[in-house]
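ok, trying the design again with the full structure, not the truncated one.
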């Protein structure tokens, strides 16, 4: 398996470089006007556990209106009281998982991704301490779990498939099951883009 050595300062510089040349990517091959999308952000939590880097994922509650029951990163819609989208990601992660904003070492933002439910999602990469006493908001989060970067980078563990939704063609990334959980869609795409950076 591939070993990942993450130099936080180097990754932060790469992320800063991406923000100097912002570009929105979309799940679909058809371009959309970002003005038609609602701003949102997710925290992409990196953590060190048992001698290697992992990512923390959540599975959304089956009672939610959008993306119910799906694996995601903690996050949600921008609020007018949020200073910026990094603040949105930290606030939502705290509300959903109990990770305190001051305990996240924010490295930077990745390019925004437009998703089919018309959110323009900005991934915010940060390092969190681990183990951590998570406090899940049960009305929003059914489960939290971690996955090694080495597993996520292994080509044997993911594939792409074309789907048609509302007349548009989408190239979707799917991971094999990990501990019974399916990582796919925008969450898988964000994961793959982070792995490319690292």
């Amino acid at each position: 398996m591939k070993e990942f050595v993450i130099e936080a300062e180097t990754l932060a510089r790469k992320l800063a470089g991406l923000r100097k040349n912002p570009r929105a990517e979309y799940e679909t091959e058809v371009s959309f006007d970002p003005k038609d999308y609602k701003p949102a952000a997710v925290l992409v939590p990196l953590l060190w556990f048992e001698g290697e880097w992992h990512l923390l994922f959540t599975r959304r509650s089956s009672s939610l209106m959008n993306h119910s029951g799906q694996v995601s990163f903690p996050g949600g819609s921008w609020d007018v009281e949020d200073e910026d989208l990094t603040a949105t990601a930290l606030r939502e992660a705290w509300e959903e998982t109990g990770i305190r904003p001051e305990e996240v070492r924010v490295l930077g933002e990745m390019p925004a991704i437009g998703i089919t439910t018309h959110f323009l999602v900005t991934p915010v990469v940060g390092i969190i301490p681990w183990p951590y006493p998570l406090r899940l908001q049960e009305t929003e989060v059914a489960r939290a779990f971690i996955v090694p970067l080495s597993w996520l980078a292994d080509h044997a563990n993911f594939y792409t498939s074309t789907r048609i939704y509302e007349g548009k063609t989408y190239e979707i990334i799917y991971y094999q099951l990990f501990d019974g959980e399916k990582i796919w869609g925008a969450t898988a795409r964000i994961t793959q883009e982070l792995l490319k950076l690292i």
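Keeping the full-length input from now on. The chain is about 20% helix and 35% strand.
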